[in-house]
Amino acid sequence: MIFEKIHTVPTSEELINKAFKRASRTMSGKTITGKESRLSANESMLLTAANIFTDNLANIVRRFPSFDNLHPFYYELADILVGVEKMKMALGSVDWASRKIHEIAREYVGKMREVENPEPVRKEAFGRLASILKAINKDLIFLNKARNTLRKLPDVREEPTIVVAGYPNVGKSSFVSKITGASPEIAAYPFTTKGVSIGHFFRDKIRYQVMDTPGLLDRPMSERNSIELQAISAINHLDAVLLFIIDPSESCGYEIEAQKRLLTEIKALFEMPMLVVSNKADRPEFKDLEGIDQNISTVTGEGIKEVLEKLIRLIPEPKKVTEAPEILWEPEVDRGYQ
Ligand SMILES: Nc1nc2c(ncn2[C@@H]2O[C@H](COP(=O)(O)OP(=O)(O)OP(=O)(O)O)[C@@H](O)[C@H]2O)c(=O)[nH]1
Ligand SMILES: [Mg+2]
User: Fold this and answer.
1) Which residues, judged by CB distance below 6 Å to any ligand atom, belong to the binding site of ligand 1?
2) pLDDT tens digits along 297-324
3) What is the CATH superfamily name and number for domain 161-334?
């Protein structure tokens, strides 16, 4: 996952304890007599502490993605969830602290060399390092929160994607598990409590992902505020086709008219190709509707293969080719076919 390599961001207190403890360990066991050995002991304490600070701080900055090259899907979600500008500023402070600490360590090593007793100088240096760390504590805490939020986002870059939409209970999850087989991974997504679930299947050595969006694309867009709409339209940045499922039997609990209105809203919001299917063709109340690309039933398997063919043809240029076992979905889909 794109944000996975960001480790836990420590607080300044944790960093201070770690660095000063490690520094004092460089002293333990040594009997210090004479000016030269006093200097070298204090010097190595200061340099040890400073190195621990600068290494840790530089790693924090390095492990965060560069927001200027970030895939636009993640950029938008990161912006909604934590704010890209705020993150850039916090990372800037951490970077500043790292450089400042390096400077102070060099300055104080020089100072220690000029005095008879270097210990008070070293202590003063530690005080300055600690206050720099404390000054960026709010940034560290913010970055750690950001990290915890971002790492739960789904990993959906650069793979051809089928996004499934439709009112609750129309059969979205049934369709996804029918074509992907294995149980899907659940990832966090802004404004959903259930998260999005993502399954995969292979076709001609290409891995496809199928994204189910409970709570996201299943009710009128007029009920959404602008940030929610931004979270939804981030999906536009994926190489995706949208599958809209209607349940004309209305056994889902929503009238056909309401379902069609949602379809119209979703059509207006998405720039990607779209396929509209009617599910539950096996039910006695099922009706043929105008303007539907395919009737399907996730129970009997009717129309599933055809839908998948159509979806694959509609997906914009798959970019990533993976060496993988052929066609994992076929045995699953073929079962129960006439
Ligand atoms: N008869 C019949 N029932 C179906 C079919 N597809 C799904 N169902 C049933 O419809 C109900 C809802 O199916 P789900 O796949 O959970 O629907 P969903 O769209 O994922 O629902 P949410 O996750 O709540 O948005 C379940 O009881 C399914 O068994 C179908 O083709 N025929
Ligand atoms: Mg579902």
Assistant:
1) 166, 168-174, 214, 218, 279-280, 282-283, 297-299
2) 999 999 999 999 999 999 987 544 444 4
3) P-loop containing nucleotide triphosphate hydrolases (3.40.50.300)
